[in-house]
Amino acid sequence: RSCFYSNLRIITPSNYLTLTQVKTLYSPATLGIDGFLLSRKRSKEQFTNYADKFRSKMNEFVSSKDTMIFTEDLKNMIHLAEPTDLELILNMIQKFNSQNTELRFGSYVFGPVVMRMFHFLDAPKEALQCFHDPKNEGFFDQMISHQILLDLLYSHEMYDEMYQNTPKSLEYASKLWSDMASTGSVPVRRACTFFAGLALKQGAPHIAMESITSQKQHYVSIRNIKVMALADMGRVEDTFPVLKSVMEIDSPAQSDKHTFFEEAIERVRTAVEKLNNKDVKKKFDEIAYALKDRGLIDSSKTLDQLLNMEIDRPRITDQNRGQSNFSQRRVQLGPRHKKRIV
Question: Quick one: CA dihedral 82, 84, 85, 89, positive or negative?
Fold first, then answer.
């Protein structure tokens, strides 16, 4: 998988404007970046003539053993932060989190806000450093904090740091899966398909198969994963009912067809050839021909592309107003323009 960065620096009288094209997992609205930028704008307006003095004061507070970092101090500094402030932010978080919790009466949750700041400032290394710092234990316990960090790492192709697509990643994900199952948690479909895709790539189709059992089978991601997993396990004939099921649903006139990716069909074909069974090959050829004839084989996408489509909020309409704020929608995978002042 590749991610293309294209930087365009526009010189203005007072600053530089950098536009960076990145591929991301989530849209800014889904991660709360849009809301963070609004809060940042208000803070900058509030501190128009006081920002530098406030930074100096925070540096003094961090260095002194006799002063505390209060919730408002950290909140304001996060929303004022520029790239040159990252070291100060890291030190403030350490000190704030190590202070006696009995002296903190507010319920403000900093983890997601801090990660949105790192995301906006395009600072993946500092985000990781802060996330893994033992002094910050419990600071990033929120699921959304993890999602924002993963999106930032993904946009920089820091796949090793994401535990992505390696035997170690599968081991790590399997442990998380077992922990969730033991507590009765049911992972969302996106998590299931990512886990299954990882298992397929690491040669563990049985894990991929098991991870999607709780999901509805009519989703394109689920049925393609199921066919690939069965093929990889050598259970070729078990793929036939799944392949034929879409022909019972679809008609040639339908615009939104229930399809299989070409790579899934080819995976089954490879498994058929390994069997060296003429009867099985004949059945498969008939099914593959029928699928192609009805336009139910999609050669324009792969499973990877589907899994990596950006996750966005739904558009609010009169019909869905009041429903869940988060959902997935299909968008064309491509670079997103990311803008920040440096």
Answer: positive
